[in-house]
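TICKET #2291
ISSUE: user wants both folds in one file
ATTACHMENT 1:
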Amino acid sequence: MFQVPSLADLNLGVTLPAISLAFGACILLMVDILFVPKDRKIVTAWLAMAGVLVSFVINLLTFNQAGSAFLGAFVADGFTSVFNIIILVTAFISILLSIDYLKRTEIERGEFYSLILLSVSGMMFMASANDIVLIFVALELLSIPLYVLAAFRVPDVRSEESGMKYFILGAFASAFFVFGSALVYGATGTTSLPGIFAAAEAISSTGGSSAFLLLLGAGLLLVALGFKVAVVPFHMWTPDVYEGAPTPVTAFMSVGAKAGGFAALLRIMLVGLPTFVIGDSQTAAAWQQSFWIIAALTLILGNLVAVAQTNIKRMLAYSSIAHAGYVMMAVAAAGSAGVANQGAQAAVLYLLAYMFTNLGAFGVALAIEKNDGTGTNLDDFVGLAKSRPTLALMMAVFMLSLTGIPLTSGFIGKWFVFSATMNAGLVPLAIIGVITSVVSAFYYVRVIVNMYLRDGEGDPAEGATPYVNWAIYAAFAGTLIMGILPFLATNLTDTIAIASTVVR
């Protein structure tokens, strides 16, 4: 007979950062509809930022406090806390970028901010999920608001196309995830990640059909989350969606969706399947080879195709694909015995660095974008150093950080990713990573050349309103502080011990 869990069993206290934001999003939607006039939607934006700040403070107060909730389906630990920081800062900066953009493009509607908060709560649940069922629910909570946000700039045909493509491919991803979950459950008899971990050890020693089912199920889960983080060959939606979606939404999904997807991927592989091996291998998980091959393909395609782009949003889209490859390097490295925690820490550190840099780059792109969505070609950056020298300087730093130049956050992220990869013995992957980083310098430095070395009057950057400037300044400060004082970031990620239960 089913036993109703008590409040003590649910242990809702450890879920407060995510739960408070989810409830806040629902309350904000009702408040906006009932009390906020159409010409005062800035009030809704401020309330949304207040909700994010409340969740951020709660997360800091409960930072690195271990616990579980919902009968073990939800887990709070250092991994959860650091990912919550990445996701909440992403949301806050994205809302700042959105306030004036929505007004000047005449798409200012209050539900925009509620959708942002709902998607953020889904990302936070993905980072803390300890059960495949909760990961699926969180994945849908993350994705469905993003489908609407991508198409938010109606009747713009490109935005409608963006939302439709994202929805169709998201539906495919959900189907793959459900099918993969069913196969994993069939092989292990459980959807709990610790339960899968225990069953995987036994399956590794006995082999048989269960090993095949588990490997196939894990592969389908990788396909599903591969769509979300935009790795090759599941990247097809990224350029069109990024180009067509409203720029603040593009910035938000380029970081937030990637963070949520990688959080779930790390949970599944390092909590549920770290000891799943096939054959005589005792040093690497069965899934490691697939991960490093995907990482290599992602690095090569993302960087090479980005070279040919003439639109800043499409260039940053392929750049985003390439950066997913660097994070995937760390995930692949985590499949080696003794490197699991280092790989997880490197992946989280890279996402933290990428958050500041990419949000800042999209913020500058938004500043020069025209009200009709034009003005995002690389030629529109010509002479920007003359018309808006401060904006050009910050964009130059963002481009250098994406390249991985020292004294920027991007360099710190790549340092730790390459270190984990080498410690895992994946030398060919590390070499590919270095070569593709050199290739990326071409298209990043091209933006700097346009701003400083080509003659032109320069764009007036009318979109650089106070709110947008605050967002860019915040991203710029984060990029430099993390690059110059990396211990501030490593002190956070050093608390991550997601694979501490692994025994080989």
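ATTACHMENT 2:
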Amino acid sequence: MAEMKLLVQPDDGVGPLVKAIQTARASLEIFIFRFDRVEIETALVKAIGRGVSVRALIAYTNRGGERSLRALEMRLLAAGVTVARTDDDLVRYHGKLMIVDGRELYLMGFNLTSLDIERSRSFAVITDDGEIVREALNLFEADSKRLPYTPGMDTFVVSPLNARKVLAGFIRDARNELLIYDPAVTDPEMARLLVARSGQGVAIRVLGRLLQRISGIEAMGLFMRLHARVIVRDREDVFLGSQSLRTAELDARRETGIIFHDPQIAARLAATFEGDWNESRKFKEENKSNTGDTAEEPPPPRKVGKKVAKTVVRELPPVAPVLEVIVRELAGPETEVNIDAKQLESTVKDAVRSAIQNVVAEAVEQASSEPE
């Protein structure tokens, strides 16, 4: 019978990962997006010395850390690790997993960094389920060789291929409760789905940030740095992975996750969530008391974008006269063009307003989201 185990960070630390690498006898596959743990690098190099085949798939880019990725590539290559670099067809290759001897999968929500492991709330699940491990190996092989990958099972969640559909179904099937760890629940479709489930009596709490304040859904910032993407459904079923309910992480990046039924792990995650919820509420109240600040949390990105767009459009000079001249020039002197200047002005300003709102909202979301 397949076994599953949970790692809780920062409580469990780097030890279990190092030990897993030390137990490898034949093969190791590892996805790397961010990496600074010397112990893990040393363990990988020593595994090579034991005759273990070590393959590392390293992201072609990340925000602000490409130099360290390239330096890591060189060190691992020099040690005898088989290194591949991810393709550049997606915005990010952000998945986090390790496979030991083709029989045990470590599916992580955290990067192999001190910040994520020692100073952030995050989780990993370990499974020896043969079907899931084989599916993870299929993904590793495809991405290493830059070949197409087709998901073979809905419980192995891979963005941008099946994540939106599978996670929407996971949320839709909630009967009583959803407990969500997520730095940025900002995808409009997923937000609407949460609203619908709340309206149908599902109790929803989020440790993280929502697209906007939603009646009936409680959300609160975590008292410590948050780098977890977890949904506990009805305290029995779990989604754990690297994808937020955020458009980019569902549709434009390589993200990996897993859905499983395990009441024991679900109960531990729920207990951790309840403790974090209470601690975060206490932290919030103490912070208000100490600073005398009674202000609300910062407005959501879309509200900021809307205000900026409104201000910019209000300050725009009239554009219809200029556009009218350009249209007539392009149409040619022999072509009669009837232009409604008022309608043209309104249409252009609406388009500008919409574009600015979207760009500003995305910029604010990127800036305020937790680091990758």
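RESOLUTION: both attachments delivered.
EXTRA DETAIL ON ATTACHMENT 2: The chain has a mean pLDDT of 89.
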